[in-house]
Each structure stands twice: as structure tokens, then as C-alpha cells.
């Protein structure tokens, strides 16, 4: 740096020496020597000040050849930095190229000579100063923030600036764009006489500049630097590519080039070279053999080639089917879950959106087809499956489309949706509608024909269907669902083959559409006949539903009840086009507004008692609850039910309201229906032992009231993505409509007291009662009421209390008048006293069951507390077993053998040994623990009808859970007893009993998992064929035998040892790779490199990917987030460190080792993506950085030699290369979250393995933080 005081002195000296050398025609080298010796006392070379003086002197008064030679010599001898000179000339020469054609030509030559040797110009201690000078001259940085502009970042900016400036100059010279910075200067006199020569030189300059642009893109180092721009500033790069495409398409100068054509120029900016999607190749595809480049990004992405839609989208099928399990609701919307899975599979599989949409639709249709032969029982059935296929999936698709960055992207997504639905017509087997929806499908097809005929599509299709037959299918229903959500328009009706029928057959005048709804919208009253009609037919539009909701909120008391009744009807279960709105309105109805004129002391909810009762009863079925769950409405539903329970649980049974039908609705009824519904939303009867240890609790055991409220309260928090996610926006609006404030269990004192007592009851034995306490008095009254029919004097002892009950008449003991909450506090002591008396022989089992049934008749909600008590007592194991001999207790013998036979049929293909159900002696009656015997005896006193359904749906899962936890064969005994009660449930009960085989035998679980792998991969066939896939894993409906995947999905939630199960899944993945290799690869063909060997290898890679996909899906479903974290952080690193290499595989061991590495890479990426998502939308994504950093630090340490791995080298290499390839190509956001030091270590390790391009990709995707290192890495790579 020259001091300011010295600057003028040596400025003049430089110019003086240069003028003198110019006049004397001095040799450039001699001039440079004189200049160097003269300035050496004042300045350090290379000197930015000297470069500025020389360029200023030349431009433009002294633009003569000898001075350009002097300047070039100063650059060659490093008196000035070539990069600084090029920056100065770019500012001076390029804008004046029209008048300074020769100077522009010299600039191009200098640029060509020096810019491609950028490595030579940034050596030594002057690197930082040189780049800062370049930045000041060119006004950099333009692309990246100033605070992150390290020298490497400035090098990238400089290169991009140079090539962009050339591109703009070429476009401007050919009139393709107009640049504002162009300087219009008259040509010098010397050109006025040589206009032809000047124009020729300009043309040649333009050709050279275009060729220079191509050289920028072709040069290895420069193109890699430009890749950093493409991967970190996509918008700038896309604009650059757009301008290159304009030049290639329209340039006349390019056509005159002898070394370049438009096709070559376009190829240089293609996605193939500058994209990092899974579809792109980043390295040469020329390989020495079939195995060399398994780890390259291109071949790893190619794993999906040849895979069928079934195998590609297997995780979706598993998620869909898993959501059909009615034993647990999910607090997270299925829309959110499926959206995340779809984005994950699209990214990791490298699929197009067309294929993604098609995969989603096919999986959804398969879900419906698997219900072709349904079994009867208290489980979700076809309505839930149709909700998933015709409402949830269209909402998922809408979500994916609306996440598009701009309108053009969204249009492309809609086009892909259209083509996917058009292709769907090629799957007629999947499109056949279930019998119960044939009419709806036919109406949808008729609507399309009416539209094409010019008829009024708002008119009814019923009359047309009566006169003509138009066969509809599931695609017609899907299209209607999409049209209703504005992601398709009616142009879909014109698709080829969409409708079949003669349009001229359609009558032009039809009666009004669904007459009942049309009449209602026009103002017809909600009388009994109208309500009956509306309940049976779903609303066809949101307008009709809005009108109904308005009546439910603002109408008379009778109208509110009628409107609520209609909302709970067909519009909820079959109104697929408006179902999300129906669910929303019903949830809102449970939090009715305070009337404007309300001034009462009591809660305003009492004024809505009948309506609230209608809603809680109407949505209490298994299918309805699952529909709410799929829509993500469970957290808010629970929040809305809590105040209802709090209020109505405070009243005595004498408080009642009159229903319009004349029926008296007591406070107990309103409370019991709301309370029972609330308990179905979480695992209320599960003991704390199921909550797991540490970070890996049992899946679903965390589902508590606190969690539901936590999820609900999260909807109140605004986020950037809220407005772009229609599902979260709807959930937020519903939550805010109920209350804009967070809600906690503490907000409801009476519910909180019961909740804490309930938890204590589940966790420990009952505490003693204080004599004459309020609870003691309630216990006494209840014991006297429910056991009033017991003959003779008997004593029932509860803890520290007793009650002597004589033969009292039914009328002599009035029913107690206690609030429901007080009853619930006393019920555990009542049941304990009764069970103790039965155990001591002072109360017979029949009277025990009858008394407890009377208690539940008195307060139906007490069934929940009875369930909790029995759950706790069975798990404690302190009660002696009782003989189910048909004398004191019911006898299961009549059905036990049938149940055993059916279990054997169900499990026929699993290879699992089924213990005999016969008692050890052969003649002894079956036995059950006393609490379980009492519980099952109480439940079979209920009628199997619609009125009892909501209570049996509460007790049923708890009964099965308890029986499954007891020694074998308790559950088959329970199933046999219940079969006597409900013969049509036999299949369901036998299936439930069959699941418990796996809970008592860990080896059976492993065998089932092994069957899942073999079925999916088609390993049951020899030789291997196309068998396997989704159909083999999940079957096609029916339960004799049950497909292995269905068995596992219906059983795994009851497993407690989830960590060991997921370790078994991991082990099966490792071993399945060897099975795949042995079944599909011929050693001789691989050695000979024949075409068959290549084909077998591709097929094997597809199967490996399928095995990893299955493994990741099962791990995620079984263990959830906690187990995925444990797997990535501990299990897999431990496996790499401890695996025994002495056990060499037979056959192509190197190939097996390499395949294993790729399987593990795909497995880990999928596990993480399922748990965290591919982006940062989910709450779980916040934990991704820590877990992923830990895993990659382990890999980096091993690459640095700090850790020695024990696995095969081929496995280790394939794993790291595959993992990094997938991350950079499919999950770039993950890479940006990793520490720069870790990425540097990984990239250095990849470079040592010769994976230079992959190392550059890793650093490129790492973002601005790694760009400085990436630049250094690229520039200093050895040739």
C-alpha cells in the first residue's frame, strides 16, 4: 500500500517512465525492470495502485499497442494482479467496446489468457488484498451478503461477473437486449474511413466473446466455480441460463462460429451439468465395469429405474394402512403426514411430480380395494378408507401444489396432476368402486356427460340415471373431489375416455338437484321429514353446508338440534367433497358462542345441552373418530370437550333438558357422552410402564391430554408457512374460534382432579378412605344402590370401609344425587370393594357383573373408571385366577376350538408356532385373572346395538389390551366368550386373538418381520420372479390367511420392546441384501460382464432400495422419532465399529458388501426424512441438526483416521458415498445445517477416494458458509 503523501510522487514517476519507454520503443521486459526497481522502495507487488495508473493512462488517450504490451508484461511479472487488471478493464473497456473494438479484442485475449489460470493468481499472502481490490472495483459482492464475503466467495463472484458481462455484451451487440450502462461514444476518426473493417472486427469480437462464454462453461475449474452460483443462488443462475438460451436461439454471430454451435452452448448450461437433482448426472457415465460407480450420484439415483409403482411408493401404502387402525387416533393430521412422506419419496426416489401424484393415487385406491371383503367389528371400515382416498389425498395434492414457489410452478404441478389422473384410467381393477359408492360414482360420471351436453350440472343426476346407465368409477369421484378444491377444472370432463355415453341422450330439463338440499337452501324448514332426508344424503356444496352451520349457530333451539343432527349424518361420512368443512363445523359446534343477551350465572353451555349431546353421540362411532383424526382435528376436539365435561359433570342427574322428540336428556347423559368421547382420543387406560425409558418411549404411549393440548396450542402460533398451508390454516382458524388463548388441563379444576386421581389409580394401589369423608359417603351410597338386589346379608369391604347390604327392595333405596365428578371419584373404591367381596366368596360373579352394569347404566361415564381400575389391577397381578367353568363364570369351551382353528388359518403363512388353547390337563376349565374375568363378564352384559356401541368402543380396546398382556391363552378365551355374544364379530375377535401370539413370543415377532421382508422382496419364490411388492406384503383383503404386513401393522403398537424390534428390522435389512444377491445375481455373468449380468445388477439395486424402504418405514412406524434418533446416533455407528469381518459371505462378497453400504445409506436417509421431513416445516425438524451432526462427525472422524471401522471397506465406502450422494441431490437443506468443519472433513475424505465431483457437490450445497472452502478446494485440486 502506498502512503497518500507518496502517491503523487510515484504516480508521476510511473507515467514518466512509461512515456519515456513508449517514445524509445523500449522492450516491455526492460520497461518492467526499470519500473520495478524504481517503485520497489514505495510499494509491494502486485500493486493495485500501479494497475489503476496503467489502465487509466491507456484508457483512452494512449490506447496504443506498445502500452498494451507494457500492461501485459506487468501482469506476467506480477507487478500487477491479472485479476485486478481484468476487473479494471471490464469497467473501462466492455462498456466502450463499440468505439474501442481493438481494445475490446485485447481485453478478450487477456481474459482468455489469465482467467482460466485463476489458481496461479491467488497464491501467497496477497490473496485477500487482491480479492478485496477486485471487489471494490467491480462493486462486489452482488450475489452474496457482504458479511460472508470471504476471498473464496469473491472469486466466485468475480468469475460470474466476468461471464455475465460477456453474455450481456453479446446479447446487446446483436440487439437481443438493451443495456442501460452502454456508452454511446462517437467512433474515432481512424474508423470513419474504415467502417467496413470496424464492423468486421466488432463481429469477430462478438464471435470470440460467445466462444469465451462457452470456454467459461467448459473449463473444469471455472465451471465448478459457476456451479457454486447455481447451487446457492438459483434465481440468479436461472436468469443467466435464460439469457444463454436466448443467445443460443437467436444469435447470428454464433452461427458464424467454426468451433461452437447452439446445441453445444445449450448443453453447457443444461441441468445435466449444473443441476443436482436425483435425475441428473454430475459425472461421466463411462465406467470400467458395472460396480465401479455404485456410489456416484447418477447411479445411486438410478436405483429407482425399473421399479414398479408398487415398490416405489410402498411407504405410502404402509402409512395409509396404518392410519386405518382404530385402536389409536393420531394428534397429527394425516394430510401433514402424507404430504411429508410424498415429498420425501419424490426427493429420494428422484421422481417427477407426475409419478409422485400417480403413486399417491394408486396407493389410495389400493387402500380402498383391500376392504373388498371386510370383517365386522368395532373397527374402522370403508368410510374411513374412502375419507382417506377421496378427501385426505385430494387435500394432500392441493397442499403440494400450493407449496409451489410461484404461479408458473403451480401450473406445472397442476399439469402433472392432470396427466397422472389421465394415466390412472389405465388401472380399471383399482378404479372399480365398492358397492356402496357405485351410485355416487355413477352420478359423478353423469355430471360430466351433462356438462359436455350443455345441460345444467346443477340439476339432479338421479332422473338421468333412472333412464340411462352411465357407469362411474373411483376416478370420477377423485376428479370431483379435486374440482371441488379448485385444483382441477371442468375441462377434466373432456379427457379421452373419461366418460362413455351418447351425449344426445341427455335430457335438457331435469328436476332440482338433490331435492332436499335444494329446498333447504331455498328456505324450507328443518322439519322431521327434511332432517331425515338431509341426514341420508351428503351436502353437495360448501354453500349448502354453510347454510346448515348458520342454522346450527343462529337458529332456534329445535333448529340447532336438527342442524347438528344433519351435520353428523352422510355429510360427515360420505360428503368427500366437503368433508373437511363438515369436520370443522362440528368441532366448532362443540364450542358454541356465548349469546349476546346471556346474563346467567351458570355456564352458557347449559343452553346448548341437547345440541351438544346430539353432536357427541353423532360423532362417537369408530369411523367418525378416525375421520376427525385423519383431518387433524383431535387436539381441538379434545379441547372443546373438556369444558363440556367440566360443566355438565358438576350437575346431579335430576338436572335435565327436553329434546324436541320429548326425550329427557339428563346432565349425566350429556356428561357421559362427552366424557366417553374425550377418553377415546388418548390412551387413558395404559399404565405408566408403557411410557418407556429415556428417549425411546413406546409409540403412542405419549398420547396424553397434555400432549393433545400442546398440539392444539401450537395452532395458535402464527408462522410463515401458515398462509401457504391450507390444512394448518384451517386448524388454526378452528382453534382460534374456540379460544385465542392457550388451554391447559389446569384450566379445568374438576377434570384436573379426576385426571390426577386416574393417573394414581393406574400407577399404584388405591389409598385408604377416610371414614365419613365425602368420597366415603358416595361409596356407601353407590354400593347400596348397585348391589341392592343381592339376597341375604352380605358385606362388601372397600379399603378401610365396609357396607352391609341386606335384601332391600329396589324402590326403598333412592338413587344418589351426586355430581358426576363425585361419582367418578368413588367408582374405583366401589369396584375394589365388589371385587374383594367376590374374591372372598361373599359376592357371586353374576351379582358382581350385574351390579357394575347397573352402575354404568346409572352413570355411563363410570365405565371409563371401571376400565382404568381393572387395567391397573390386571397389570399388578395380585389377584388369583378363576375357573371359567360355566357355573360361577361364563364358559368359553363351546367356541374355543373354533377360535384356535381360525387363529391357525390367519397365521398359516407366518411359520409361527401357535401354543395350544387347551388347558394343560385337557379337561380343566379355562382360567382368567379375577379382574379380567370380571371385566369381560361386565362387557358381555352390554347389548351389541347402536346405543351401546360408543361405550363398547371404549371398553373393547381396553379389554383386548388387558387380555393380551395376560398369560396365554387369555385373549383367545376372551374372544371365545365374546363370540357367544356377537357371532358376527367372530372373524374380528379371532383376528384380535391371533395378534397376541406375537406379544408373548419375541421370536414370533422376528419371524413375522422376516415374512414381511420375504413377501415384499419376492424371496418366497424360487427362482426369483416378479412376485412381491405391496400386494404380497399387505394382501388384497380378507383374513384367511392375513398378509404379514397387515398382521404387523395391527400388532406393533402393543409391543413394548420397540428398540429391540427395530434392531431386528435393521438386522433383517443387512441379511436381506445377501439374499437378494444370491437370488438375483449370477457370479459367472458378473465376471464376464455380460448383458444379463448388467441387467441383474440393476434389478438387485432396485430390490436393495425396496428392502431399505420397507425397513425405514417399519422402523419409523414402530419406534417413532426417538428410535430413529437412537438408530442414527448409536446403533448404526456401533454396527460399523463392531461388525465381524471374519464371517465372510459366500459368493460375490465384494458385491454384497457394496450393496449393503447402499442399502444402509438409503435406509438412514429415509428414516431421517420420515422422522424430520425434507424441509423445516415440521416441529421434529428442529431436532434434525443435532442428530445428523453427531452421525456425520462420526463419519468424518473415521475418514480422518481417528476411528477404525470394523466392517468391509466396500461397505464403508458405499455407505458414505451413497449417504452423501442422497443428501446433496435430494436433501440439500440438511447439508446446510451441518457444521462447515464436518463438511470439509467429509469432502477431503471423498477426494482421497477419487470422488472429487461428489466432494465439490457437498461443499457447494453447504451454502455460503462453505463456499470459501469450496472455492479453495476447487482451485487447488490437482489436475
TrEMBL record:
<keyword id="KW-0472">Membrane</keyword>
<feature type="transmembrane region" description="Helical">
    <location>
        <begin position="1155"/>
        <end position="1174"/>
    </location>
</feature>
<keyword id="KW-1133">Transmembrane helix</keyword>
<feature type="transmembrane region" description="Helical">
    <location>
        <begin position="1106"/>
        <end position="1128"/>
    </location>
</feature>
<protein>
    <recommendedName>
        <fullName>Mediator of RNA polymerase II transcription subunit 33A</fullName>
    </recommendedName>
</protein>
<keyword id="KW-0812">Transmembrane</keyword>
<dbReference type="InterPro" id="IPR039638">
    <property type="entry name" value="MED33A/B"/>
</dbReference>
Amino acid at each position: 500500500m502506498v502512503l497518500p503523501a507518496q502517491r503523487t510522487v510515484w504516480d508521476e514517476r510511473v507515467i514518466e517512465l512509461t512515456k519515456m519507454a513508449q517514445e524509445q520503443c523500449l522492450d516491455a521486459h526492460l520497461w518492467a525492470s526499470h519500473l520495478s526497481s524504481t517503485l520497489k522502495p514505495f510499494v509491494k507487488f502486485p500493486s493495485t495502485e500501479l494497475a489503476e495508473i496503467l489502465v487509466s493512462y491507456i484508457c483512452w488517450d494512449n490506447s496504443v499497442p506498445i502500452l498494451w504490451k507494457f500492461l501485459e508484461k506487468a501482469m506476467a511479472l506480477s507487478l500487477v494482479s491479472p485479476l485486478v487488471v481484468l476487473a479494471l478493464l471490464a469497467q473501462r473497456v466492455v462498456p466502450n467496446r463499440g468505439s474501442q473494438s481493438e481494445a475490446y479484442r485485447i481485453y478478450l485475449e487477456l481474459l482468455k489468457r489469465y482467467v482460466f489460470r485463476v489458481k496461479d493468481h491467488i497464491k501467497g499472502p496477497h490473496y485477500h488484498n487482491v480479492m478485496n481490490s477486485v471487489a471494490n472495483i467491480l462493486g462486489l459482492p452482488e450475489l452474496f451478503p457482504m458479511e460472508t464475503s470471504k476471498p473464496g466467495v469473491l472469486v466466485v463472484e468475480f468469475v460470474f461477473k466476468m461471464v455475465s458481462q460477456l453474455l450481456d455484451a453479446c446479447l446487446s451487440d446483436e440487439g437481443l437486449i438493451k443495456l442501460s450502462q452502454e456508452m454511446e461514444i462517437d467512433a474515432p476518426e481512424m474508423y470513419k474511413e474504415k467502417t467496413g473493417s470496424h464492423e468486421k472486427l466488432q463481429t469477430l469480437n462478438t464471435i470470440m466473446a460467445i466462444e469465451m462464454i462457452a470456454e467459461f462453461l467448459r473449463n473444469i475449474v471455472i465451471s465448478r466455480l459457476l456451479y457454486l452460483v447455481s447451487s446457492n443462488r438459483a434465481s440468479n443462475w436461472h436468469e443467466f441460463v435464460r439469457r444463454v438460451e436466448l443467445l443460443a436461439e437467436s444469435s447470428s454471430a454464433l452461427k458464424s462460429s467454426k468451433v461452437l454451435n447452439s446445441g453445444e452452448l445449450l448443453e453447457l448450461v443444461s441441468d445435466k451439468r449444473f443441476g443436482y437433482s436425483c435425475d441428473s448426472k454430475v459425472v461421466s457415465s463411462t465406467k470400467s465395469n458395472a460396480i465401479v460407480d455404485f456410489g456416484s450420484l447418477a447411479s445411486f439415483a438410478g436405483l429407482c429405474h425399473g421399479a414398479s409403482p408398487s415398490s416405489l411408493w410402498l411407504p405410502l401404502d404402509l402409512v395409509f394402512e396404518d392410519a386405518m387402525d382404530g385402536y389409536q387416533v393420531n394428534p397429527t393430521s394425516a394430510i401433514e403426514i402424507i404430504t411429508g412422506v410424498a415429498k420425501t419419496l419424490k426427493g429420494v426416489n428422484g421422481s417427477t411430480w407426475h409419478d409422485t401424484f400417480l403413486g399417491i393415487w394408486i396407493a389410495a385406491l389400493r387402500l380402498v380395494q383391500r376392504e373388498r371383503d371386510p370383517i365386522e367389528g368395532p373397527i374402522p371400515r370403508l368410510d374411513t378408507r374412502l375419507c382417506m382416498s377421496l378427501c385426505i389425498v385430494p387435500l394432500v395434492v392441493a397442499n403440494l401444489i400450493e407449496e409451489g414457489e410461484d404461479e408458473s410452478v403451480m401450473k406445472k404441478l397442476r399439469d402433472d396432476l392432470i396427466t397422472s389422473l389421465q394415466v390412472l384410467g389405465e388401472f380399471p381393477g383399482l378404479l372399480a368402486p365398492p358397492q356402496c359408492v357405485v351410485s355416487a360414482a355413477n352420478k359423478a360420471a353423469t355430471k360430466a356427460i351433462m356438462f359436455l351436453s350443455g345441460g345444467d350440472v346443477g340439476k339432479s343426476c338421479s332422473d338421468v340415471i333412472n333412464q340411462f346407465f352411465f357407469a362411474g368409477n373411483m376416478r370420477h369421484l377423485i376428479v370431483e373431489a379435486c374440482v371441488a378444491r379448485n385444483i382441477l377444472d371442468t375441462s377434466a370432463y373432456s379427457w379421452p375416455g373419461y366418460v362413455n355415453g351418447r351425449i344426445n341422450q341427455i335430457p335438457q330439463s331435469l328436476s332440482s338437484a338433490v331435492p332436499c338440499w335444494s329446498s333447504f337452501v331455498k328456505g324450507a324448514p328443518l322439519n322431521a321429514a327434511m332432517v331425515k332426508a338431509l341426514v341420508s344424503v351428503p351436502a353437495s356444496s360448501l354453500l349448502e353446508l354453510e347454510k346448515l352451520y348458520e342454522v346450527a349457530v343462529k337458529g332456534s333451539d329445535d333448529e340447532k338440534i336438527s342442524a347438528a343432527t344433519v351435520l353428523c349424518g352422510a355429510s360427515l361420512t360420505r360428503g368427500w367433497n366437503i368433508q373437511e368443512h363438515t369436520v370443522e363445523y362440528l368441532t366448532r359446534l362443540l364450542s358454541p358462542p356465548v349469546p349476546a343477551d346471556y346474563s346467567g350465572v351458570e355456564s352458557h353451555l347449559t343452553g346448548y345441552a341437547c345440541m351438544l349431546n346430539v353432536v357427541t353421540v353423532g360423532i362417537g362411532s369408530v369411523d367418525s373418530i378416525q375421520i376427525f383424526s385423519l383431518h387433524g382435528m383431535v387436539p381441538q376436539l379434545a379441547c372443546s370437550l373438556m369444558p363440556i365435561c367440566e360443566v355438565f359433570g358438576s350437575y346431579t342427574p335430576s338436572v335435565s333438558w327436553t329434546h324436541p322428540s320429548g326425550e329427557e336428556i339428563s346432565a349425566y347423559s350429556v356428561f357421559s357422552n362427552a366424557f366417553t368421547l374425550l377418553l377415546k382420543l388418548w390412551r387413558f387406560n395404559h399404565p405408566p410402564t408403557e411410557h418407556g425409558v429415556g428417549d425411546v418411549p413406546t409409540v403412542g404411549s405419549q398420547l396424553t391430554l397434555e400432549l393433545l393440548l400442546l398440539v392444539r396450542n401450537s395452532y395458535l402460533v402464527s408462522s410463515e408457512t401458515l398462509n401457504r398451508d391450507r390444512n394448518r390454516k384451517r386448524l388454526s382458524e378452528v382453534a382460534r374460534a374456540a379460544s385465542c388463548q392457550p388451554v391447559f388441563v389446569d384450566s379445568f379444576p374438576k377434570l384436573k382432579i379426576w385426571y390426577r386421581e386416574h393417573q394414581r389409580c393406574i400407577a399404584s394401589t388405591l389409598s385408604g378412605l377416610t371414614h365419613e369423608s365425602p368420597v366415603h359417603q358416595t361409596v356407601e351410597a353407590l354400593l347400596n344402590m348397585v348391589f341392592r338386589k343381592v339376597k341375604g346379608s352380605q358385606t362388601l369391604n372397600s379399603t378401610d370401609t365396609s357396607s352391609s347390604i341386606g335384601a332391600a327392595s329396589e324402590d326403598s333405596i333412592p338413587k344418589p344425587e351426586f355430581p358426576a365428578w363425585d361419582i367418578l371419584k368413588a367408582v374405583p373404591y366401589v369396584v375394589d370393594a365388589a371385587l374383594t367381596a367376590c374374591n372372598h366368596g361373599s359376592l357371586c360373579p353374576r351379582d358382581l357383573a350385574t351390579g357394575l352394569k347397573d352402575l354404568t347404566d346409572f352413570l355411563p361415564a363410570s365405565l371409563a373408571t371401571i376400565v382404568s381400575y381393572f387395567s391397573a389391577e390386571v397389570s399388578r397381578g395380585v389377584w388369583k385366577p378363576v375357573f371359567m367353568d360355566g357355573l360361577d363364570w361364563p364358559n368359553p369351551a363351546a367356541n374355543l376350538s373354533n377360535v384356535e382353528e381360525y387363529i391357525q388359518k390367519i397365521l398359516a403363512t407366518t411359520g409361527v408356532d401357535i401354543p395350544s388353547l387347551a388347558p394343560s390337563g385337557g379337561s380343566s376349565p379355562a382360567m382368567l385373572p379375577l379382574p379380567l374375568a370380571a371385566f369381560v363378564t361386565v362387557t358381555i352384559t352390554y347389548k351389541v346395538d347402536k346405543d351401546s356401541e360408543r361405550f363398547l368402543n371404549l371398553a373393547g380396546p381396553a379389554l383386548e389390551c388387558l387380555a393380551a398382556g395376560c398369560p396365554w391363552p387369555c385373549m383367545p378365551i376372551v374372544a371365545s366368550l365374546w363370540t357367544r355374544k356377537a357371532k358376527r364379530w367372530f372373524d374380528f375377535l379371532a383376528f384380535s386373538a391371533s395378534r397376541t401370539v406375537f406379544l408373548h413370543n419375541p421370536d414370533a415377532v422376528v419371524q413375522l418381520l422376516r415374512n414381511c421382508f420375504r413377501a415384499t422382496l419376492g424371496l418366497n419364490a424360487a427362482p426369483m420372479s416378479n412376485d412381491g411388492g405391496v400386494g404380497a406384503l399387505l394382501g388384497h383383503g380378507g383374513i384367511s390367511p392375513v398378509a404379514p404386513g397387515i398382521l404387523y401393522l395391527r400388532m406393533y403398537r402393543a409391543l413394548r420392546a420397540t428398540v429391540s424390534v427395530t434392531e431386528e428390522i435393521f438386522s433383517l435389512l443387512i441379511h436381506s441384501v445377501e439374499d437378494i444377491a444370491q437370488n438375483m445375481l449370477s457370479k459367472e455373468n458378473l465376471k464376464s460382464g455380460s448383458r444379463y449380468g448388467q441387467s441383474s445388477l440393476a434389478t438387485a439395486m432396485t430390490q436393495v432400495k425396496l428392502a431399505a424402504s420397507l425397513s425405514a418405514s417399519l422402523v419409523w412406524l414402530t419406534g417413532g422419532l426417538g428410535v430413529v434418533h437412537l438408530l442414527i446416533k448409536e446403533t448404526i455407528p456401533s454396527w460399523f465399529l463392531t461388525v465381524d469381518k471374519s464371517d465372510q459371505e459366500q459368493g460375490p462378497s465384494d458385491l454384497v458388501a457394496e450393496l449393503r453400504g447402499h442399502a444402509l445409506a438409503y435406509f438412514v436417509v429415509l428414516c431421517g426424512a420420515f422422522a424430520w421431513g425434507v424441509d423445516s416445516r415440521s416441529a421434529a425438524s428442529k431436532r434434525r441438526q443435532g442428530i445428523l451432526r453427531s452421525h456425520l462427525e462420526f463419519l468424518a472422524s473415521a475418514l480422518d483416521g481417528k476411528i477404525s471401522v470394523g466392517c468391509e471397506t466396500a461397505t464403508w465406502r458405499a455407505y458414505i458415498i451413497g449417504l452423501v450422494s442422497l443428501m446433496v441431490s435430494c436433501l440439500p437443506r440438511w447439508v446446510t445445517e451441518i457444521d462447515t468443519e464436518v463438511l470439509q472433513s467429509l469432502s477431503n475424505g471423498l477426494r482421497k477416494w477419487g470422488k472429487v465431483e461428489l466432494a465439490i457437490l457437498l461443499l457447494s450445497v453447504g451454502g455460503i458458509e462453505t463456499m470459501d472452502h469450496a472455492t479453495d478446494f476447487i482451485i487447488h485440486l490437482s489436475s
